[in-house]
Amino acid sequence: MKKAVVLLSGGMDSATTLAIAHQAGFLCYALSIDYGQRHHSELQAAANIGNLIQVASHQFIKLDLTTLASSALTDPSTTLPTKEEPGEIPITYVPARNTIMLSLALAWAEVLQSYDIFIGVTAVDYSGYPDCRPDYIAAFQKMTNLATKAGREGKYFQIHAPLINCSKAAIIRKGITLGLDYSLTVSCYQADESGHACGHCNACRIRHAGFIAAGIADPTRYQEK
Amino acid sequence: MKKAVVLLSGGMDSATTLAIAHQAGFLCYALSIDYGQRHHSELQAAANIGNLIQVASHQFIKLDLTTLASSALTDPSTTLPTKEEPGEIPITYVPARNTIMLSLALAWAEVLQSYDIFIGVTAVDYSGYPDCRPDYIAAFQKMTNLATKAGREGKYFQIHAPLINCSKAAIIRKGITLGLDYSLTVSCYQADESGHACGHCNACRIRHAGFIAAGIADPTRYQEK
């Protein structure tokens, strides 16, 4: 079996990506990064999803980005946005987050002699983050093949972003056909310790709209009002 | 003053790079990564050099790569090589190290609104690491401008590698003209806690040969035999 490193945040996109990689026949190595996110229950969700899909190994790397980078996602004193501003990059943007996570995945992949890295970014319904676009993924892939010993030896890394052109509804339909239990995933930027979602931050709104568009009952565990 | 983020390991190349950035008029923000390297006194050397050059800020980020990646540089049970094998990438190669470090520098740079990142890689006398080559640096720079909010807003990040075409002797001569005290720097892969060098690992050999080629007395503090 070919090995793949899969970045697993615990949200629905990365969980679906893991299910896709598993379905495609890869032996999956899940990597989750504790970067000081305020929605810490996301990491427990990642652990539960890794168990569900029976990954070969699951590593959690602690990297405190709060000393370098402030973001509404890591700073609990910031109020989270509840609507999107068209054309704006939101305050929940964490500088260079996907670049840092893909770099860590690359290090592990090279050690595992895996040449396939999966990331659940999507350029549709994506909150306007620049590091979710196809051009970015292509540029990262090109860089990896110059960065590594494996690349120099003629092995070719591929960065797979199977959801990059999918709407949230399409992601949900795909995951359901793969047997994914979305009640295990946490998308909410301010989920409580048990992973219950607030229901009104942008991540909650986009997620809930996805279930409606997919015509599937929303299994999200919401906080009691 | 324009701000620059400078990766500072505590070795002679990154120290010289910091001196060059400072001399060029940048307000320097030094970033050092504690990635579990066995030559931990390198980080104390980084602190001393940051003080000498009076950086605006110096951040130390702890990132335990030992769970993902084994390398002779992080695994104290491995015997370090004392000669180079032509054409081989040595066992001291840490997978994706420069990619991870540049990614962290990018995150900080974006927060500081700095568009200049300095790294002390060199493609000459460089021990054969793939992530020290000009093509790699160019590919990383291209990726950064797609990865970031700043890049999307038309600001352009530059990855400066001012030593990339310099021999060790040229680096040493440059640093001496900038007033750098190389006795503060630690290159040895197995320096002791006080930063005294072993004198026979590859890093020590390349460094010592550099001083000889530059015609400058080697100020390295060696361990007593």
TrEMBL record, chains A, B:
Binds 1 zinc ion per subunit. Its EC number is 6.3.4.20. Coiled coil: none annotated. Belongs to the QueC family. Pfam families: QueC (PF06508). This is 7-cyano-7-deazaguanine synthase. The keyword Metal-binding applies. It catalyses: 7-carboxy-7-carbaguanine + NH4(+) + 2 ATP = 7-cyano-7-carbaguanine + 2 AMP + 2 diphosphate + 2 H(+). Its cofactor is Zn(2+). GO terms for molecular function: ATP binding; ligase activity, forming carbon-nitrogen bonds; zinc ion binding. GO terms for biological process: tRNA queuosine(34) biosynthetic process. InterPro entries: QueC (IPR018317), Rossmann-like_a/b/a_fold (IPR014729). Keywords: ATP-binding, Ligase, Metal-binding, Nucleotide-binding, Queuosine biosynthesis, Zinc. Zn(2+) binds at residues 188, 198, 201, 204. Catalyzes the ATP-dependent conversion of 7-carboxy-7-deazaguanine (CDG) to 7-cyano-7-deazaguanine (preQ(0)). NCBIfam families: 7-cyano-7-deazaguanine synthase QueC (TIGR00364). ATP binds at residues 8-18. Pathway: Purine metabolism; 7-cyano-7-deazaguanine biosynthesis.
